[in-house]
Each structure stands twice: as C-alpha cells, then as structure tokens.
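Note on ligand handling. Small-molecule inputs were canonicalized before submission; formal charges were left as drawn, and no protonation-state enumeration was performed. Where a ligand contained multiple stereocentres, the stereochemistry in the source SMILES was retained. For zinc ion, this procedure yielded the string shown in the input block below.
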Amino acid sequence: MSGDGAQRGGRLTGPLLRPTAKAVPGDARTHNRSLVLSSLFHRGPLSRADLARTTGLTRVTVSDLITELAGQALVQETGSKTEARVGKPGTLVDIDSDGHVMAVLDLSDTATARGAVITLRGTVVARAEQPTNGATGQAMLRIAQRTAEQLLAQTGPAKPLGLGVASPGVLTPDGQVVYAKDYQWNNLPLAAGLAASLGQPVAAANDANLRALAEFTYAGASAEGLMEVSLTDGLGAGILLDGFMLLGPSNAAGEIGHIPAMVGGDPCSCGRRGCLETVLNREVLRKANGTASGMTDKTVLKRVGTATAAVLAPIVSAFNLSDLVFADPRGLATPDVLAAIRQGLEERLLPQIMADLNVRVSQLGADAALLGAGSLVLANQLGVT
Ligand SMILES: [Zn+2]
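Structure output:
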C-alpha cells in the first residue's frame, strides 16, 4: 500500500495512514521528507535518534533532511529531551508551526463562503467570509477567489503553503468539479483556475470527504474504518477505510443523499421519493428535536432513526466500519437524534458489529471542512498524511 500516494502526485488517492516503509529509489528523497514530516506532525517533538528509529532511516539521512527542512522553515529545534538517559540528551525537533500557514476555504454553506488562515497544526489565525447572495457559475467562482485573496492578505510574516478548498459536489483528485448542483458548476477546473489567478498551489476536494479527513489529521481518529456523515446544506459522507480515503471510479463515493431510505416517503429534489435527504435534513431534524414546540417529536425521531439506519447499516456492515461520525455544525444531531439512529442500527446490525461501532458527533464543529482543506494542503504540499 505504501508509496502509492506520492507516485500519483500526493493527491488524495493514496494511503492516508502515516507512511512507515522506506521508499523505492527514485523519489526516495521526496518520500523520506514526507516520512520525517509526517512522523513529526503526528508524534513530534522527537530527537533525531527517535526519528531515525520511527522512520527506519539512517541518522545521517535524518540529520540531512532536518537541516534542509529547517532551512525551509518547516521544522525547528524545540529544546532538549529532559528525562535522564544514558548518553547526551538529544535535541528535540518539531514541525515549525509558525513558519508557514495555510489558506483554507469552505464553500459548503451555500449562503456564505467561509475562509480561514490556519497554522500547520490547525490553529486559526485569521478569518474571512463573503455572502454568496445566491451566486452561481462564474460569479460564485469570483466570490471564492475574492475570499481567498482576503485570506492570503492576512498571512502575516508566515509563508503561505497553499490554498485548500472544500467544495460541494463531485470533484476529481486534481480539484476539477465534475458537478456541483448548488453552484451550477459542471466540469469546472476549480483548483487550476484559482491557482492561476492567485499564484499559489491550490487543492480542492469534496467537503464531506474533507471533514472525514480532518477527523484523522486533526482529531486523532483512526483511518481504519470511519464514515463521517455531514449534516450540512447537502447530505454527504466521507469514508476512510484501511488507511485510504474512498473516492471510487467516478469520485462519487460517499454520495449517500439519494439512497432510498424508505418506501414511499416525501418527494425528493432528484424526482424520486423517500431518499435519505428527505428524512435526514434540517427541517425534519428540527421537528424531531421539537425546536419550535420545545418537546421532541417521538414519531419523527423514530422515523429519522429508522430511515437513517436503513441506509447506513448496510454500509457499516459492508465495510466493517468502527466509527460513525456526524459532522453537525448546526447542532441538529442531539442526543435524542443519535439515540434514535443507534436504535435503528441496533435493529439492523449483528450484535458483534454494533458492539464495535462508535456512533458520535464530531468535536471539530463548524471548522471541520476548513481543517479538512488544511489536511489536503498538508498532503499535497508536504506529503503529510
Ligand atoms: Zn433524491
């Protein structure tokens, strides 16, 4: 599995797990750089000796790489190991969190283009946003570009590493929007267009996929078997399996909104009835939670739980998922809603699978897609996954 991602240009088609094996000759130096940076990102600070042990590289190679990376303001020395050991204490090295920043953009809220400047560790240092006023097509692209320009003007003394964009719709690994219904984008070279006008490396991917990725990069989740369902304007999911982000041959893996969730049901925007989107949406969840009345609606809760589980249980079983996460920036997945979904899953899954399944709400809140866009920049520019 290892090495594949780097050979395909570091795009999100490769392994997402921390690389552990040494590279084949040829792109060895690039690979080893990624290996050192990934190790520091996830386990730093480390001494050079620790890094050599962790990566399997020689101490000489590690020292050379650290010198090179320090010169590029990507790593820095952070002091000495304090614990008493035999021999002289090793100087600790870590990711240089102030040397570079990333501009990140979230276009998944169709009312507002939201952006942030974040450190490599995901700390927000500046924000910018623009109302979309229902813009579509080229007009929406200009709004994205203006928001990105605002962000790049706020990077301060740190060097921008690039721009990451979380977009609704289906995107190819090189950031072309195949289609995004909300913005009437079809075959739009989103990343390439923004890169040309901004003079920065740009990477773009589906927002739901990026929320799942952020869970791995910034919230310590495993990439062994995780599905993150985004309860945002559009209903989508991202799936991490065996260390890979699933994209599929049409890059549309995780597009679960129009899977039939019940027989009959309400009419859907796609022209059919009873799609998951008609049950797991803002209006229905507000009703279930009794937002207006102050009392939960047990009938609606039950319907949400049953219909959601009817779609999610087969996916959980087919992929043997252990984490089912809901990205819930609007606070719709209340404990009552989660309990109803859990109940529905219990009725459909084998007890052993249910026992291993962790159903929860993401702790990353409204910034999950922004952080995921940061993960994408880290992966594309530094090979850090
Ligand atoms: Zn539908």
